[in-house]
Known about the structure:
Strand content of chain B: 5-15%
Order of helices and strands of chain B: EHEHEEHHHHHHH
Pfam families (chain A): GST_N (PF02798)
Domain GST C-terminal (chain A): 89-227
Keywords (chain A): Detoxification, Transferase
Shape of chain A: globular
Shape of chain B: globular
Family (chain A): Belongs to the GST superfamily. Theta family.
Strand order of the largest sheet of chain B: 2-1-3-4
Helix content of chain B: 55-70%
Largest interface: A-B, 31 and 31 residues
Catalytic activity (chain A): RX + glutathione = an S-substituted glutathione + a halide anion + H(+)
Oligomer: heterodimer
Number of domains of chain A: 2
CATH topology of the largest domain in chain B: Glutathione S-transferase Yfyf (Class Pi), Chain A, domain 2
Amino acid sequence: MKLKLYADRMSQPSRAVLIFCRVNGIDFEEVKVDISKRQQLTPEFAEINPMKKVPAIVDGRFKLFESHAILQYLASAFPGVADHWYPADLFKRAKINSVLDWHHSNLRRGAAPLVLNKALAPALGLPLNPKAAAEAEIILSASLAKIESFWLKGNGRFLLGSLQPSIADLSLVCEIMQLEVLDDEVRARILGPHKKVIKWIDDTRNATQPHFDEMHAILFKAKEKLLKMHSDAGSDQTESSRKPALPSKI
Amino acid sequence: MKLKLFVDRLSQPCRAILIFCKMNKIEFVEVRIELSKGEQLSPEFKEINPMQKVPAMKVDERFRLFESHAILRFLAGAFPGVADHWYPADLFKRAEIDSVLDWHHANLRHGSAGLVFHSKLARLSGRPLDLRAAADCEKVLSASLAKIESVWLKEEGQFLLGNSKPSIADLSLVCETMQLEALDEKDRKRLLDPHEKVRKWMDDTRNATQPYFDEIHGVLFQVKDKLKEMESDE
């Protein structure tokens, strides 16, 4: 029975797992769970993951959720996964675990709510929240600074000075890629100061092509739709009636 | 391997590591970093952990590590004689424990630690309370306790994931819920009373790790008295 991966490519951790499987030749069936259509809230999906989130996997009878746990499991369970993704060496592995742990309350906690509250919320039928976005941006900027000054120290191009990417690189870079849906000037303002981060994103992308671009294509489509929404709203508001912009489902 | 642990017993993740080491007879030197005095912000400690947080550890004066879950996993793998149930070698059991540990950060930890800090412990370091933030965190805490009851605790087994013996996930999460001792008794009861399974699980985890559990948590009860004093002075 093939591995089943329940994912939405708009979800950062879903993309990390998808890319990991592709790069490592892990055979799987991608089951799309469309968050914008609230498919994660169906009773059928609750059987897969009672926390009602993506990504989740089913491997035979074994079900698992939480992307880091999934990545750690897949790295160990499937033959042919190169050691650098999640090294067997206890010391190297521990360091990768510490980045993955740090991520939850730092990069993820900054980047995800910023993009949601500043851009993506209407696609999910939610209102934008500039205050929450501003608070999230502070956490994001602090996190990017920590990646620049600490996690990217060393000889290699990847986190922890590694010469090859690990599951930590995949997880964190997929998170930062979500910023693509923001206005270019906003994205440039946030990322611009961090030259090492920008290079690292590129290196991780290059190391996982063509799968990286394929899994991220949806983000660029989402960006186009958002731009179109804004410009439609702009042209509406030149009318004297000043209709408010209606949120549309992407 | 010479192990140094940089900890404050008032910190939930620190307690989990201390109890784990004592249970498994892992020798270590405990270096106290007192958060209420801002000691985590010293330049010396920044050398140990540039994120300026506890817990942190150092092995043989050369290998440094922070983030309590990474530390617990490392210790379980690095020291002989650690029983398998703490962090099983079986890939499936291990993955399930990993998923609880991951879930913890943005759920139980975020809710519980935030509530207790913003409504009580901030005073200890002379910081102002933030009751609005505390209220937000309380919502996350209540939702998390409900999830522990409905998803993580099963019919069989006393511990998380239906296990009959505790894992590092039980230690991490129970040390977090113990922080609620710092709240007023009525608030603590209000939050925990609805969750009978959670209360039993906390008890089971405590019993499975005595006498170290009570020893390491002693500081929490001292702080509770100190907070009462501070509040009655106002």
